[in-house]
Design brief:
There is one protein chain. With 157 residues, the chain is of the alpha+beta class. The chain has a single domain, classed as Lipocalin, CATH 2.40.128. It has helices at residues 2-19, 26-37; strands spanning 40-50, 56-67, 70-75, 93-106, 112-120, 125-133, 137-144, 150-156. The longest helix is centred in the first third of the chain and has 18 residues, at 2-19.
Length: 157
Amino acid sequence: MKSQFLLPILVVLLHLSSCSSSKTTPETTRKVTQQIENKDFSIKVNYAVPMRMKQVYLTSDYDVRIKNDSAFAFLPYYGVAHVAPMNTSEGGIRFAEQMTDYTIRPNKKHDGWEISFKVKTREYHYQLYLSIFNNGSSSVTINSYERDAISFYGELK
């Protein structure tokens, strides 16, 4: 049980330490801050870290986008689903819905942002947590009552 939580933590630390080697300039910090404050940004994900599985490198274009008061997601899903979708061809995490309970705040080290919000689709209720650093590296964690949690790592675009 302990190793199930240790592996994702190690993957996150490795990913964040590799991303921290890129330089954060005042210009990139300003650009990231402006995108976050305007609620107009996209995160292109490269890795998926399911709760009960190994990390998966993603070769296709998957992303999470925020535009004004709406969120859009086109993501794969790996893990245990407690409720199967009504239409089996609708796998993954896909939505284009209005956000609720949107909160944004600087992270503890003041080198990025923490964003959380909820999205309700016809079949699922999602709680999303985004961590976006000033150098553009990002993580997305998605929780749902109907599925195990999954995290994604990528870059702000």
